[in-house]
Hints:
By secondary structure, the protein is of the alpha+beta class. It has one helix spanning about 40-110; strands spanning about 5, 15-20, 25, 30-35.
Amino acid sequence: MKFYKMQCPSCGANLEVENELDSFFCKYCGTKIYVTEQDPEIIKAKTSIKLAKEKAELEKVKLQQELDIKKVKLQQELDIKKQENKDGTTIGLLIIGIIFLMYLFIYLLIQSI
Ligand SMILES: [Zn+2]
């Protein structure tokens, strides 16, 4: 947390203001003071905070997008693997079927003799 120096417009006391505050009470005279954003230091500070927040927000969105892309890619890879497994199973069943038919054929051949 950062503080900025400003003067109380009522009693002239030097005050330290938290840069996030829009209004506060003078600790010497109790006057409510509005931070009018006329203090260039405060404006600058607020702007940089806003920019940092926006940047962080952008970074978050970017990371979220990257994560989404990675998720989609992972899903696609999983789908491909599933498809490959399915193909493997199909080929396996086909081979078993052929072997079974061959045995059947040989059996029938032997029986007919
Ligand atoms: Zn004051």
